[in-house]
Design a protein that fits this description.
Elements (H helix, E strand, L loop, with lengths): L4 E6 L20 H7 L3 E4 L1 H4 L4 H10 L5 E5 L2 H6 L6 H9 L9 E7 L8 H10 L4 H8 L21 E4 L8 H10 L2 E2 L1 E3 L14 E6 L12 H16 L3 E6 L6 H13 L12
Parallel strand pairs: 1-2, 1-9, 2-3, 3-4, 4-5, 5-6, 7-8, 8-9
Helix pairs in contact: 5-7, 6-8, 9-10
């Protein structure tokens, strides 16, 4: 299969987008569909804040076009509260909450670390070793859930690989040892553009690339200029030429730039969407 440019936004429920990116009067229940039809991927971020339910994942599956890929943000209980320590139960609960319902639309699972977690090869290595690499391993891990999961679904809809991406925010991760450890486990280090706040680590550590664009000059707020999007498009084309799937998610949502920037990047890449080409859906 040819490598794919999977471009979209991190989340989609933002009041600032209504009457701007979303047409005035569009029902909120149709916002995900509207966004996904104009992009090729969406990063689900509600899963970061709390365990979701299988019905929610099923709804997101049904609301998006057939070729849309849904990345899933890993729970902050694992990354921010437990801080990667003693997280096997937390991982089991997370994956039991319905992630596998996404079936063939399941994209990478994103694990965003807090700025205060420094690179510790033992801690990080133990965490990466726990991450399931395929749907069968995910189901086996999920089977160990406890009663904190209110809705449970541990049945794989498809059989295949499960990818993971790690977004570290401490500069100590910008090291050869950290890159080698992620490469050993096949986990992509996120290429983060954050107006200089967090490290940008462009090295390949997996067979795909995962980019999060948080704002070029102002974190979460500023948009991307034409020149910047041209540069990102060229970089994406290079990665695609290397045979890597490329996931790009715009997180500069505070002033409503994210969805417009995603659409503009897709246009530069010449990637059809369900809205631009009916056959793409």
């Amino acid at each position: 299969m040819s490598p794919r440019a999977l471009v979209g936004v991190s989340g989609w429920r933002y009041p600032r987008w209504r009457g701007d990116f979303y047409p005035t009067g569009l029902p909120q229940r149709l916002e995900l569909t509207y966004a996904a039809e104009r992009m090729t991927s969406v990063e689900l971020n509600g899963s970061f804040y709390s365990l979701q339910r299988p019905a929610s994942y099923a709804g997101w599956y049904e609301a998006t076009p057939p070729n849309c890929v849904l990345a899933v943000k890993g729970g902050r209980f694992v990354t921010h509260l437990k801080r990667l320590r003693g997280v096997e139960q937390g991982l089991a609960n997370f994956f039991a909450s319905g992630v596998l319902v996404l079936g063939e639309k399941l994209g990478p699972v994103l694990w965003q670390l807090p700025e205060t977690i420094e690179f510790d090869p033992g801690l990080v290595g133990d965490f990466l070793a726990l991450l399931p690499r395929d749907t069968e391993a995910t189901a086996a891990l999920a089977a160990g859930h406890d009663d904190k999961v209110k809705g449970v679904d541990t049945t794989p809809r498809t059989h295949g690989a499960v990818r993971h991406a790690l977004e570290p925010r401490h500069p100590s991760f910008d090291s050869d040892r950290a890159r080698a450890l992620c490469a050993e486990h096949g986990v992509a280090i996120v290429v983060a553009d954050s107006a200089g706040r967090w490290p940008t680590i462009p090295d390949a550590t997996s067979d795909f690339r995962y980019v999060r664009l948080h704002g070029e000059t102002e974190l979460y707020a500023s948009g991307y200029t034409d020149a910047s999007l041209d540069r990102w498009a060229r970089q994406c084309e290079t990665w695609l030429g290397d045979g890597h799937d490329v996931h790009v998610y715009f997180d500069n949502d505070a002033r409503g730039h994210a969805p417009h920037d995603a659409v503009r990047l897709l246009a530069r890449l010449g990637v059809p969407t369900a809205a631009t080409t009916p056959d793409a859906s």
